[in-house]
Design goal:
Length: 213
């Protein structure tokens, strides 16, 4: 256990994720390590909008399109991102069902599709839909970047991740930590090329694939 006090909400009254407050800087560092100074990023499952707000404020050269399927999230995101000129109005996007937004006025497609903490807190069908959708909307050479806890064959699962997996499955049997090998099979089917993974704090990973040039 950490002795540090839990992060405090940045804006009173708005939905707030302590986890997002803790992991926002490591995620920002990975996004910066992968993306050029000018980029257009489609974020899936933006949730509370904390990543959108933090990243867009830190990287004014990035155009950020937040999305989520949840009506509450679609109200929270614009409230949290108010005043950030590089954040587009939040759009409803059910990864499995809705048409994915294109990039207005540009033909090449998104520089990156980014999602944090989506594939384990949604049914498995979201993962193949995510891979297929990203392959459709990314620019050639564009990045699919995923953050969260994953199961890696041949590597021990941290006790905290095993407990988290059990708690997710108890909440919804369709949820649960995903095997990186299963994600890779879906990425292969979508024609996305594996780039690599970074170890993140608290037994999370940052995963990267690219649409071929
Ligand atoms: C655990 S939250 C993660 C939020 C944020 N990305 C973060 O890391 O703090 C999971 C999010 O996934 C969204 N979600 C679940 N199923 C989805 C789907 N089929 N399409 C789009 N978003 C979905 C939920 O509405 C929720 O906002």
């Amino acid at each position: 256990m950490s002795d540090r006090p839990p992060p405090q909400p940045d804006l009173p009254g708005l939905a707030f994720s302590e986890a997002a407050a803790r992991n926002r800087d490591p995620i920002l560092a990975q996004l910066r390590a992968h993306l050029p100074p000018e980029a257009a990023v489609l974020e899936l499952a933006s949730g509370t909008g904390q990543h959108a707000a933090h990243v867009a404020a830190a990287c004014p050269g990035w155009f950020w399109q937040p999305t989520d399927v949840d009506a509450g999230a679609l109200q929270t995101i614009p409230a949290r991102c108010a005043g950030l000129p590089n954040v587009a109005p939040a759009q409803r996007l059910d990864v499995c069902r809705d048409p994915w937004p294109g990039l207005e006025g540009q033909t090449g497609g998104w520089t990156a599709v980014f999602a944090a903490n989506l594939v384990h807190i949604s049914p498995w069908a979201v993962t193949p839909a995510l891979m297929q959708g990203a392959a459709r909307v990314l620019a050639p050479g564009g990045w699919l970047l995923l953050y969260g806890p994953f199961v890696v064959d041949g590597e021990p699962l941290a006790a905290s991740n095993a407990a988290f997996d059990a708690s997710l499955r108890a909440r919804d049997p369709a949820w649960g930590l995903r095997r990186l090998a299963d994600l890779q099979a879906q990425a292969d089917a979508a024609g996305l090329q594996w780039h690599g993974r970074q170890v993140m704090p608290a037994n999370n990973l940052f995963l990267a694939w690219r649409r071929p040039h």
